[in-house]
Amino acid sequence: MASTSLVDFCRAEIAGLKESRTYKTERVLEGPTGARVRVDGRDVLMLTSNNYLGFANHPRIVDAARGALGRWGNGLGSVRFICGTQQLHKDLEAAISRFFGAEDTILYMSCWNANEGLFQPLLAEEDALLTDGLNHASIIDGVRLCKAKRFITPHGDLAGVEKALQEAQACRRRLMITDGIFSMEGELGPLRELADLAEKYDTTLVVDDSHATGVLGRTGRGSAEELGVMDRIPVFTSTLGKAMGSAAGGFTTGPAPLVDLLRQRSRTSLFTNSLPPAVAAASLEAFRMLMEDPSPALKVQSNALYFRRRMKEAGFTIPAGIHPIVPVIVGDTAKALAMSAALFEKGVYVSGFGFPVVPQGHARLRCQISAVHTEADLEEAVSAFVAVGKKFGVV
After folding, report:
1. SS3 242
2. Is the terminal CB of the chain with fewer CB neighbours within 10 Å at N or C?
3. pLDDT greater than 70 at residue 16
């Protein structure tokens, strides 16, 4: 086989992506994000952000970050266990623990880091790790780093989960992880049924609730609250970079001994700088705001149901659900990306996704609704979708 330089390989791969019209480009935002955002010199309706509660540019969040920058500085130049812990970090961990009704919490720079750093400290070759086949890429990478026996179950296959749990009974310990919300589908995981199986087979259930924290449930406590199983999920991982401030950061929350062991052995905490003070303060303020008043969570839920109904009435294929992630299925990847560009020209910023992010034939535009969208905003988006959908033969 003839040798090829790494740079030549990259050049050829990029050419292939461009030829297949799956090459991803970045748009540059010219200001803060909200219901609308300025991009390429024009104001467009934002329909592709994880800013579910509209907290990213909320005055209280910005003031908290600004105040922390003045009092605590820009950063600590250290990991937590050396000299990287401030009272802000402890206060945020305590607030997250109260929010979830957990004993303790450990912060990370992202939920990706939380998931990567979760399994290896807790499980060894004698143990079992069960994961849904559609779980987030961060969970997949965390699973790869762990030496436990792996059981990758088909998405949503509860019979397959029970069979795997039966096979894993010979293992010393068992841990099962699922997304609370599957991010490309906007689909709730079957947490009640998984909790039943976890209890039946003496297995620890972990839920990554990144797309549900602050979003679902009567008080915004996520997928488990939405499904009435908050007290049956012992461990959660989640993010601060979506609803709860929309900047950065993640965490694992659960039993104190588990969190304490992660502090001692989780490599993505031990060898990564602590969360910047401004980010920690902003996220702490986000939790305070939501615990004071859960109405932003109720508003985004209401907006999501309204938009889903109007898009279905317009003739689009929308999977059943309640989440503000609203996938508009179009089938072909090139069509999804072309429709995204056409919608942008009509003033609606929404992203197209195709293979390998989603299975072949299931390409979609992933709309993401926020609490700061008005009914007029959502109607504007539906009108733009109808015009573009007709042009591309989707409706």
Report:
1. coil
2. N
3. yes
